[in-house]
Amino acid sequence: MGFWRRVWAYWLQFASWLYPYCHRAWVFIRRFNHRYQVVRWAIVLFLTVAVAASAFFTYKAKTADVENLKTNLKTVTQIYDTHNEKAGTITNKGTFVELNQISPQIRNAVISTEDRSFYSNPGFDIKGLARAAVSYVIHHGQISGGGSTITQQLAKNTLLTQKQTFVRKFQEIFLAVEITRHYSKDDILTMYLNNAYFGNGVWGVEDASERYFGKHAKDLDASQGAALAAILRSPSFYNPVDHMDNALGRRNLILSLMVDNGKLTQAEANSAKNEQLTLVNNYQQSDEYRYPYFFDAVLDEAYNKYDIKEEDILNKGYKIYTTLDQTIQSQMQGSFKEDWAFPANAADGTPVQAASVAVDPNTGGVLGVIGGRGKHVFRGYNRATQMRRQPGSAMKPLAIYTPAIEAGYHPDSMLEDKLQSFGKNKYTPHNVDEQYAGEVPMYEALAESKNTAAVWLLNQIGVQKGVASAERFGINIPKSDQNLAFGIGGLSQGVSPLQMARAYSAFANGGKLPDPHFITKIVDATGAVVVDNTNTTAKQIITAKTANEMTSMMLSVFSSGTGTSAAPSGYKIAGKTGSTEGDSSWGFGTKDQWVVGYTPDVTVATWVGFDQTDANHFLKGISEQGVAPIFKQEMQNILPNTKQTPFKVQDAAQEDAANNGGSTGTSSGSGDDWLNDFQSNVEKGINGLKDKASEWYNSLKGLFQ
């Protein structure tokens, strides 16, 4: 007792010492509050914030697409091809069924577990929110979930993100009230059960019933219904396929809750608890996402170009009309499944990657696209549209030969083909085969991809003309890359197959550069057109004459140049090959290999290489060896399905050979033949003088730069 008396005495002494200070503090607070009305202003501020927040969240709820919620959930986003025929669907929804097609046992289990006051609450539950607030305090400021009614969960799953924040929680409550105003409780429960995720890639109660029990949702008993309701808590932890013990424990708890809620008798619950869960999988997953890389690109374009969110595309039942040609896309996918058409894997098993895109050169519409080999990842890396790699010699027609034609050169103009250095840095390009002819006609330099002749020509016309030309074709050249090396593909950032297909489409389209696209029109679930891209235009970047002369030279690439092994049998195409050298210490091979080919109806750009190149991951052998088989396979499958419009020009190499053969043959004595030969020789002489004059001018100009 003595000890406690001393404690009490000390406490009284401390309290008597503290009291004056507390009293003075209290007096100060009272006077301060009386003078400045702090409490009153705090109440006013709180009410103002509350009213403003309520107005904001009410506005957000009123402007949300609540009225069309059920319509959107019942429909899926459909993709149509260039012929307006259905090509597939984009959705994360299961099979939609009405409430009378869902077993009462499922409904009762879900309500007993998730929201006992579902049929009486206004969309939110005060007690549930209070429990969530207590949980927030206990978990030191972490929003741990809970407190959400079925209506709130429906709002979160269909109209909001899954991120746990206070703002989202308030939005959820106001949206739940708005949903309750527009729909009956039965409608809300129907939408919730059809939109819920049940694990193993299954959405909706009907598909979940088929996936786990091999039955329709209307045929499930109390044990099975409670087991499905159990999955909603955590699909990865409570689904009976992966965690049967967890599923049974949770099911039994839910059966007890159903007894407490008056939905089952104790005897019925005991009988259901003793029932074994026999798993039967009758779920047939839809194959509607049959063109994965194309559909991924559609989603990307809808988001990046038209600002339509991914969750809206997946949930709001749009009709998306595209440029897809199902035959061409199917043929490209089939070609990429042929392993023989690709180089062998690296020694460690890493596969060679590839990408390809087919474009309508007249409209810019993408007809087909493949973003890689191997297993597709939903909205994963698409090499055809997102990758940037050095184009090698595929850059030459864009950066060197086109501006040379515009500067007055001709397909048969003679170019220097010898080993030499250029500029102050003594840049010295080499031909791949280390063979130099001294001089070659321009069409031959292009067809045989002679680096020395190409760089000599770029030096003659000037690097800036080459840069300006490449940028007209839609390829940006950074300041640091603006040198002679860029003309033969030396770029720090690189290009994508889609960029190359677009650029070469200008040659096929009479000099007009199209705008590549996947989407032509988007219509929402109400029938309103939200995107209209049907009237596409193309920009005239070079003359039709220049485009034709370039095509005549690029026909030679596949008839007698570096593209002969990639030429499709029985078809005439124009274009260019390209490759980039690897480190000389690796051995003989390349990092990237390209073929870009076109007809008046289609442009195809194909790339082959490793994602990461090093001494153990590069393409061995000559530059066209790796990419030629897959490109040839693609074109032989694609071209029979096009209009097969003929070229307007002849192969420059074949035409020159025919002309030279005619001039050296014996004369027939015809006056007309003599006159034609004379005119041809005069024209060639004049063109030769023009070329020499151009060379002299550029040489003199270079002395003063």
UniProtKB/TrEMBL annotation:
Region (Disordered): 651-677
Domain Glycosyl transferase family: 91-258
Keyword Membrane: yes
Domain Penicillin-binding protein transpeptidase intervals: 356-633
Keyword Cell membrane found: yes
Any one Pfam family match given in the protein's UniProt record, by short name: Transgly
Protein keywords: Carboxypeptidase, Cell membrane, Cell shape, Cell wall biogenesis/degradation, Glycosyltransferase, Hydrolase, Membrane, Multifunctional enzyme, Peptidoglycan synthesis, Protease, Transferase, Transmembrane, Transmembrane helix
TM stretches of this protein: 38-59
Domain of life: Bacteria
Catalytic activity: [GlcNAc-(1->4)-Mur2Ac(oyl-L-Ala-gamma-D-Glu-L-Lys-D-Ala-D-Ala)](n)-di-trans,octa-cis-undecaprenyl diphosphate + beta-D-GlcNAc-(1->4)-Mur2Ac(oyl-L-Ala-gamma-D-Glu-L-Lys-D-Ala-D-Ala)-di-trans,octa-cis-undecaprenyl diphosphate = [GlcNAc-(1->4)-Mur2Ac(oyl-L-Ala-gamma-D-Glu-L-Lys-D-Ala-D-Ala)](n+1)-di-trans,octa-cis-undecaprenyl diphosphate + di-trans,octa-cis-undecaprenyl diphosphate + H(+); Preferential cleavage: (Ac)2-L-Lys-D-Ala-|-D-Ala. Also transpeptidation of peptidyl-alanyl moieties that are N-acyl substituents of D-alanine
Listed PANTHER family: BINDING PROTEIN TRANSPEPTIDASE, PUTATIVE-RELATED, PENICILLIN-BINDING PROTEIN 2A
Protein name: PBP1A family penicillin-binding protein
